[in-house]
Amino acid sequence: MIVPDSSLPPADQPLPAGEGLPRLAKKKFLHDATEHVRDTGHRAFVRKALGGYYTNRDLQKARFRSWDHARDAASLAKWSAVNRLDELLPRFVANFEANGGRVHWARDAEEARTIVLDLVRAARAKAIIKSKCMTSEEIHLNAALEAEGYGVVESDLGEFIQQLRGEPPYHFVFPCMHVRRDEISDLFGKHLGTPPTDSPEELTMIARRHMRRLYVDADIGITGANFLVAETGQISITENEGNARLTAALPRVHISISGIEKVVEHLDDLAVLLPMLATAGAGQPMTCYNTLYAGPRRPGEADGPEEMHLVLLDNSRTAILADPEQRDSLHCIRCGACLNVCPIFKNVGGFTYGTTYQGPIGSVITPHLRGLADWNHLSAASSLCGACSDACPVRIDIHHHLLHNRRNAARTAPNAWEKIGHRLFAMVARRPWLFGLGGAVFRRTLPLLKLLRPPLLRDWLASRDLPAAPRQSFRRQWDRRPQVPTAAPVHPHLRKEKA
Amino acid sequence: MSSTAGMSAREVIMARIKEALRVPAPLPHGLADDSRAQVGPPAAALTTSGGSGPTVISAHASTGLPTLTVLPEEVARPWLPDGGETPAERLQLLVENLGKLRAVVQQVPDLTAASDYLFTLARERDWHRVAWHPHPLVEPLLAGVPCATYRVDAADFDKNALESCDAGITSCEALVAQTGSILVSSATSGGRALSILPHVHVVVATADQIVATLADALHAAKARHDGHLPSMLSFITGPSRTGDIERILVLGAHGPKELILILVG
Questions:
Q1: CA-based diameter of chain B, in Å?
Q2: Which of A152, A218, A277, A360 is the most exposed place for a label (fewest CB within 10 A)?
Q3: Cα A361 vs. chain centroid, distance in angstroms?
Q4: Number of Cβ pairs closer than 8 Å across A and B?
Q5: Which of the 8 DSSP states describes residue B128?
């Protein structure tokens, strides 16, 4: 695992911004990535855990008559909603309120925390149960609730394990995919007093038994939301375990926290998006429970909460909306497919990012949420292989957005050394004699460079070896290549060169 | 946005959205060459694609608000997983899909046979108490059940009583052949908790409740509850599950460990 560097804040904490601590996030990323890459056992474990995902995802994709055409439809649903947010968000809110729900608008994380705390106080809550909700991670809700003395229990198995470990999620869909079963057994033994076991099934049952009373006793249930349906004013929640269903069924008050970009126009859009979310995210035909909530309990219904509240969170989403080039990153349905296929994620691990949203999509949106100057290094940590864009069920152009971030960073905060370097190279490359001379000098000084390891090359040489320099330049070797008589036709371009 | 002083959070966020959307975004990938995207009167079209792309958004005839000229679901329909053309195909697909999800399907000719099956289940599994809700498909099954019963209704609901039940028996809105999903609702399945809290969920449905696709199921629910959708609609696709420990599948995370469908007719 990652060796903590005490000079750096923990992965979950927002880094202090701006002056005094330039590039702290980058320093931390490089440190953690280096540590993680050396941990081959851990990398193999993550790779093995993802093996089953690839098989199931491909099996489910094959059930589509055309996965790629379905992706076009899914991207249309999200594109038309995000580009008409000014019309659809108020329509959703009006319908949600007509259903008996209450909407609270939050400009930023602090405002969202205040709203939830006020609701919790007003309900005189004693116990809070929570299902998986990434927006609550984004606003650091649990810490705020605990600071006010409220106990809050994560009910999703993975999130529960992470809560006991005192860690943020490793992966925003598979929160504890990095934890071995023996570690979970020890953890449950320590916190719940259960006997050790190496059976994933028995470990799951321990959590099940532990949680059942908590659903019944909780006053408040907090959930996220996957989609907000403008046409009907419903919110849609996707989950496998049934914990969100219980969280929204038994407590007196249901609070949901959602980003403003989750709106879709029609209920029918979900007939496309739900199966695609399940297939891309976990290799399932449908996630086990896809539930639409339209307000609190109705007269005549057996049960359900007395109040339903929805916190609509901006927290810089409108900054992404204002960038037409990267606006499609708001189409994201948080399936996590781009993480599962990303060579960087698989090698540096989820914590190294230091962000709420890990992986390629996190690298695209985090600079908008927390500042490009401090978070551009995530866009540089990419091989630009495009696996993320291929995997995306709503066709977000993820890897090009990483390039866009790099370009924007170069524009807003140009690197003087990089500029000088490129100018110098351009000057040399335009003059063949100078280029030849440069090559000759480089070939002769290469052994010396390896020995001296100047700062510019040091990082590169840390994990790579330079090959020995050839004795002659390429141009020299080309001129002296053996002339093999051949009957093969010579390409016209080459013929002209010769002449 | 010149000054935000004195504006509510809603006003500020809506102003930010309006400001942000002043510059249009390019059409999504793959849409520019979809000929169906051109349905709709070009004259009324908004120039959301910079004027050169196909018309995908036009002004709504009566409200004047922008609206999609082609629905994403229509675009997707031919490409999504098959839902079957005939009732026989749909039944076969449903049973196949539920089997893969490790749900149990019991086909019975009539309600008497359904009642017998429930009796056997309760006896074999030594159920002490089963929960149910008043419904023409559910009520007849409980007549001879060899254990205590708990009736879930609006008058007096006790979550502690429900928690101690071994099984919950409900009806449903629709069965989806395409995915093997069962659509339940707070209106037709005894509220929210009955189909999720007990360890076993037994669904009683008739064969004519089978529909081809998820969209068909949503349409059926919309039509039935015309304008007054129940406060909860839930697609249940197999018994509760988790893969959170080393990505290994375990059934029965927090919801029912077993899902049993009794299909009548």
A1: 73
A2: A152
A3: 5
A4: 347
A5: S
Contacts of A180 in chain B (CB under 8 A): 246
Q: Test B197 with A250 for CB contact under 8 angstroms.
A: yes
Handedness of CA B42, B47, B49, B52 (dihedral sign): positive
With CB atoms and an 8 Å threshold, state whether B75 touches A267.
no
Q: Kindly give, in sequence order, each residue whose CB lies less than 8 Å from that of residue A344, ignoring residues fewer than 6 positions away.
A: A359, A360, A381, A382, A383
User: Which phi and psi (to 5°) does residue B129 adopt?
Assistant: -155, 130
Query: Which of A269, A289, A321 is nearest residue B72 as measured by Cβ atoms?
Result: A269
Neighbour-count burial of B165, counting CB atoms closer than 10 A to its CB (0-12 exposed, 13-18 middle, 19+ buried): buried
Domain ranges of chain B: 9-76, 87-264
In three-state form (DSSP H/G/I as H, E/B as E, the rest C), the secondary structure along B180-206 is: CEEEEECCCCCCCCCCCCCCEEEEEEE
The answer to whether domain A29-48+320-412 has CATH 1.10.3110 is no
Please tell me the distance in Å from B89's CA to the nearest CA on chain A: 16
The tens digit of pLDDT for each residue in B179-210 reads 999 999 999 999 999 999 999 999 999 999 99
Closest in B65, B81, B248 to A275, CB measured: B81
Q: Give the domain B87-264 fold.
A: Rossmann fold (3.40.50)
**CA triple B103-B108-B111, angle to 5 deg:** 115
Q: In this structure, is the dihedral angle defined by the CA atoms of residues A219, A223, A228 and A234, taken in order, positive or negative?
A: negative
Q: pLDDT tens digits for A169-222?
A: 999 999 999 999 999 999 999 999 999 999 999 999 999 999 999 999 999 999
Angle, helices A24-38 vs A40-61, to 10°: value is 90
Tell which phi-psi region holds residue A304, choosing left (phi > 0), alpha (psi between -120 and 50) or beta: left
SS3 of A315, please? coil
What are the CA-CA distances from residue A341 to residues A35, A47, A50, A57 (Å)? 21, 10, 9, 11
- Compute the nearest-CA separation of A65 from chain B (Å): 4
Give yes or no for a contact between B182 and B236, defined as CB atoms under 8 angstroms apart: yes
Lowest mean pLDDT among A17-26, A289-298, A425-434: A17-26
Residue ranges of the domains in chain A?
29-48+320-412, 64-315, 432-484
Q: Which of A250, A265, A286 sits opposite B237 (nearest CB)?
A: A286
**Fold category of A64-315 in CATH:** Rossmann fold (3.40.50)
Measured over the CA atoms of residue B234, residue B236, residue B239 and residue B240, the dihedral's sign is negative
